[in-house]
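Amino Acid Chain and Its Fold in Token Form
===========================================
Scope: a single protein chain, as residues and as a discrete description of its fold.
Amino acid sequence: labelled as such and written in the usual single-letter residue code.
Position: the record begins directly beneath this header, with no further notes in between.
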Amino acid sequence: MIKRQSQYKLIVIFICLLSSITVFSQSKKQQELENRRQELRKEIEQINSMLFKNKSKEKSQLSVIEDLNHKINVRSNLIKVTNQQANLLTREIGVNQREITQLRNDLETLKKDYAEMIVHSYKSRSEQSRVMFLLSSNNFQQAYKRLQYIKQYTNYQKEQGETIKIKTEDLKVANTKLLKQKADKQNLIKENSIAQAQLEVERRQQRELVASIQKDLKTYSSQIKQKQQEADRIDREIENLIREAIAKSNKKAGKSSTSKSFTLTPEAKNLAASFIANKGKLPWPVDKGVVKLRYGDQPHPIVKSATIHSNGVRIATSPGTEVRSVFNGEVYAIIVQKKGNPTVLVQHGNYFTAYKNLSKVYVKKGDKVTTSQAIGQVFTNSATGDTTLSFSIFKESTTQDPSLWLYKM
């Protein structure tokens, strides 16, 4: 019996080990999904706060549609992630239900075996029967083995009793966990139902607004083109300044001024290397914000004939928000245009970061700045209430995707 029980224990341990590995993997994925869900919920809160809170300001219909389109995309992602969580919980619930069934079967078997042992012990409970069992041995070796057997049997009884206690407690824990998982799943389903209803309202608003601007698409297309020209003009000036900086570095080092790469001092090399080492970990240029426009060429979400060329990202934030340097560096230039707001250009070795559309500038050319140091304030449009920072990263004169450099963008 003892040998059979030992084999049975090994099988149960192996099954539990496989189950634990599966549950650990699912729990890790569940935590990742929960973290992403909370990030999306926070982003929707920021969108509502930064893009839709100030109703006293008159935004253009096109701007409202763009903001609404952004919120719809984020809410759609939230619903998708929540669905993934609910589906994963369904699988976890199935695993736990099978585990509970296995625990119940194990417990029933253990109790049955334990009962048989108790009956057997009761029948041979007297000391006389044990002594007779030993005295009836053919030789001393057999008597010793019988004595060891009696000890093992007694210890095994105690182990079985403890195992039953542990299994009973495991069953209670599994049942509690199962009830929580079912409650979590119901909460996710309820939350998704509310999100679906909100999404439908927003999509209806979007359709109505898009229909209302159809007759003025040419006007809006012209406005988009004008904004693009203004952005391109600033980017060209930044690129010219960077080319000048490259030429100066090469001239100072006695090299050809036509080179397209910097000749860096040892200090500048270290700074550039440190900047690269922090790729993906740099802080955002504002404390809180919503990315309204990402890097690269993309069709306009409403006026399909218009293409947006973005050398960086546009981040909507709150009025009065300060702009922060994303890394140690030196202010290379303060760019002020007749029809635009100031831009601060910061050099980090052979890398540059540009902070555009400022209302106030706290630094001047040549100033040394540190990571997260305030260098200005984002401009707020008094007519619309929009507060948007345009941010770009350059490696020499080549633009970089800021989402690859900034933390969790």
